[in-house]
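Q: I'm a student working through a structural biology exercise. My instructor gave each of us a protein and asked us to get a predicted structure, then write a short paragraph describing it. Mine is Vacuolar protein sorting-associated protein 54. I'm not confident about reading structure output yet, so if you can add a plain explanation after the tokens, that would really help. Here is the sequence I was given:
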Amino acid sequence: MEAKSSKQKQNSTFPRKSSPRDMELWKVLSSQNLPAVLNDPNRGKQRDFFTKLWGEDFVETAFIGNLEHLPEVSYSSFEHYLKKVNKRLKQHEKLNHAISGGPLSPKRPAALPEKLQSDVSGIPRIFMQSNFDLRVPETFQTIHSLKGEVTSPSESSSKPLNSAKVLQEKVAKQPIAVPNRNILSDSQLAHYLDIVEVQIAYQVTQKSDSFFQAMSSHDALMEKLSRTSKTVSSLRSNLRNMDQYLVQDSLKILQCAQMKQNYFAVVEKLKLMVTVNQTQSMLQLLLSIPDYVAAIDLICTTQEILVQELAGINGFRHLSSQLSEMQRLIDKILSAEFERYVTADLNRPLDQYTEVLEEDKLASIVYGMLRQKYFNFANKYKEEAFTSIKATVKQLVIEEIAANDSGEGDMRLTGTGEQLQGLSLNQWRQLLERTAEALLRVVNHVKVVHDVMREAVDKSSGKNVQSDGKSSEEDSGISYLNISDPSETLLTPDERKIVNFCLGELLCSVCDFANDQFAQLLTMQSKEIWVERATAVQVCDVARIVDNFVDSCIRVCDKRSTALTSAFKVQASKFINKFHQDQKDKLTMILASETWKQTVVPQQFQNLADKLHETGKLTLPKRDLDSSVSISNGNHNSAGAPALVMGGEKYVVVGSILLLLKMMAEYCLCADELSVMAPNLLRCLVELLQLFNSRSCQLVLGAGALHSVGLNTITSTNLALMSRSLQLVLVAAEAAKQQLLPSVTDSQRIVMHLANLEKDIMSHCKEIENKLLALICGLVSREVSQWDARPPVPSNSFRNVSKHMRKLHEAISEVLPEKQVQNLYRNAHKMFKIVLKEQLVKMNILNNGGPQHG
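A: Happy to help. First, here is the predicted structure for Vacuolar protein sorting-associated protein 54. I'll explain a few features afterward.
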């Protein structure tokens, strides 16, 4: 029953709001039908201030966690206190019971009779459910199937009925006999309702204090709400006044400012439309200047404006396609103008002072191509330069052939150069010289155009280039070339590197092609010109032309082209082979006719020796080279000095040595002029000196001169002249080594050959010295072997020995240097003592102080 009573408490609601007047008329008996009024099954369960049950759950509480700074207090903490106070509490309760006469306080309301508490159990439980609703078919069927219950008289007879109301309830509970019906009667339902009303009345009586308190709080809340409503109304009135007198005017000012701004935006948009409408006429004006970069920028800017600012305007719906077509037309104009400019620039007569044709126009075209990212303009210019070089070479060849043609026959320039082979060597050299000058003019002009293009590229990447103290605008004459804002540059750093690389390749390719064409012209000449008719002077002149051309190309492009150098090296090799063979044949003939006698030294050879001593180089003027015929004939009796003086030292030599010095000077001169052939010439010179050393050894030491020139014998004078000549050869060979070796790349093998040559010549000199020593020792030995230890003293043998020594000194003292003569006589003196000792031993002459010893 207690559970049912608590459930009824939870399901009870109080939706109606009472006024103060109702509170004044309300009495205890007025709550008789209050449960019926409050129990409205059509309303759901209300959870508000007026429907909450009074108790600890009436006010919602939040969970408060444990405090950190307070200790936990448990029941055990109060056990001591409770035990101490427990006795006093019991005594106090006994006193209270004795005074009040019972455990209940007079102010507590009377408890509900047990009969009323138990009557609730007689009501079917379905009426107590919270979801009770007769509209539900199952609920209605359950109520319909319930059987009526009648309370027996014995249950109510135990207590007397004190009122008519109780009797009425008893009669109402009597069942009404209705045949064949199993439903609840109206009296039963009324009885159930009365029981519930009594329970509600009791509950209201129990909670009357809380109810009145809630109503009081409700009245206070209503009064506060009224005051709040008045305050809100006043606030709204103030806000309306502020909005009308303060805010609206300011908003109107802002609206006017916004309208003004919108009007300005419309005007600017109209101006922009007018400007865009004038784009085509502006493009025509820019192309007529010509200013291709500005025209292309105008097209790009207009297209961006059409997409971003003027999108959706029907008047401009075809303008974008027109601008795209105009941009493609500008691309074609740039290509055509560049080709036309290049053709006009390179096909005109060029001289040393020819300037760039219309530099401003070239810069404008280049800027336009850079703006459109067309980086192949360098290749187009390169192809046109190749064509110009070919035409230049062909024109020069035709002019040279026509100038030297006799007028007979048909003059045609064939691929094999048949007409060129008819030219003399001087004519051919003049043709090469003119061709080199013309090609250098073309190359230098390409370099000037390249500089203009490079300057345009640098400015396009944001790099301002100044030349000759002028600003970039003054140099170019075009105002838009001065780019200072990095965001407006035409080229990125990577693109600038690509274009500069292409321009560098342009210079290198033009120089290489010019070298190739010059090399083809060089190789058109027949082999007999180089082998039979060319002289050293003429070949050196050609070498000078080739070297100057190659060096000029290197200054232009900082790169050496090997085509011309290789071609000239092939042709020069033919000349060097023939030249070397001629020199060897000439030297062989000179040595074969050499009498190995002292010769008079002409002045030109003394000049050669002086130059060698001063500069350390073997050089001979070209006019002395031209007089090679008279000298080679052996004209040694002409006026001149008896000896060759070099550095204060005299060299008494034979005539072949002077011619050998001249040959060595020719080799060194050719090596200086033909720098590419210096290694070959140095090897040939070593071979020539080895030939001279070996052949002279055969003629002198081997006595070959007895048969070649009819000498009776090889005298000591011949040997001394040969030794002194070899010493001069060593000096000249060392000078040639110092002169030519720095220009040789693979010098290790050449140095080894030179060392072997020096070793062979020194060995040859040593053999000559030994030959002289053997000669004098033979004479001394013959005279000493005939000597006998008898008067007169000195004997004839010793007189003859002195005579031989004196004659040898007279023969070699004017030829060999004094130090060498002293060494020779010192060795001869040693040999003389050895021979004399042997003779004394043979004659058994002892150191005993006897007559023979004396």
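A: Here are two points you could use in your paragraph. The two ends are 185 Å apart (CA to CA). The CA atoms of residues 454 and 500 lie 7 Å apart. It's a good idea to check both against the output above yourself.
Q: Great, thank you!
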